């Protein structure tokens, strides 16, 4: 006879092995989820960098156009000011659209790794209940 089975350690060791296997499987799942969310986060940062460049470029163009509009506004012909302000308005609207996209993307940064944090929170809660 086995001394461990007589003392009841056999069942305890089996449960420990099963818990370790479940823990390893759970860890692998969490790692996969974190990798997926990291790829999403990298894409978001890439988009954010491109939008930052767009906002910067459009800001420069908008300021140049607005400056040209102010200068042209004082020229002699009656049609030049309307055209210059129209061009400046178009650039200003484009800049505003890029800025809105940039701000919305920045506000979504708190959603990073939300699923992983949620899953780890449930795991922690479950572990605390078992203890």
Automatic annotation (TrEMBL):
- Species name: Variovorax terrae
List where the protein spans the membrane. 48-70, 82-103
Recite the UniProt keywords alphabetically: Membrane, Transmembrane, Transmembrane helix
Report the Pfam families cross-referenced here: Phage_holin_3_6
Superkingdom, natural source: Bacteria
Specify the protein name.
Answer: Phage holin family protein
């Amino acid at each position: 006879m086995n001394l461990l089975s007589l003392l009841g350690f056999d069942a305890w060791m089996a449960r420990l092995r099963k818990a370790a296997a479940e823990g390893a499987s759970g860890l692998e799942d969490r790692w996969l989820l974190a990798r997926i969310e990291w790829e999403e986060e990298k894409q978001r940062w890439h988009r954010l960098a491109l939008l930052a460049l767009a906002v910067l470029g459009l800001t420069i163009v908008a300021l140049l156009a607005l400056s040209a509009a102010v200068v042209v506004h004082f020229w002699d012909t009656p049609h030049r000011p309307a055209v210059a302000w129209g061009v400046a308005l178009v650039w200003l609207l484009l800049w505003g659209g890029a800025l809105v996209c940039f701000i919305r993307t920045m506000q979504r940064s708190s959603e990073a790794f939300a699923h992983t944090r949620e899953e780890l929170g449930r795991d922690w809660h479950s572990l605390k209940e078992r203890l």
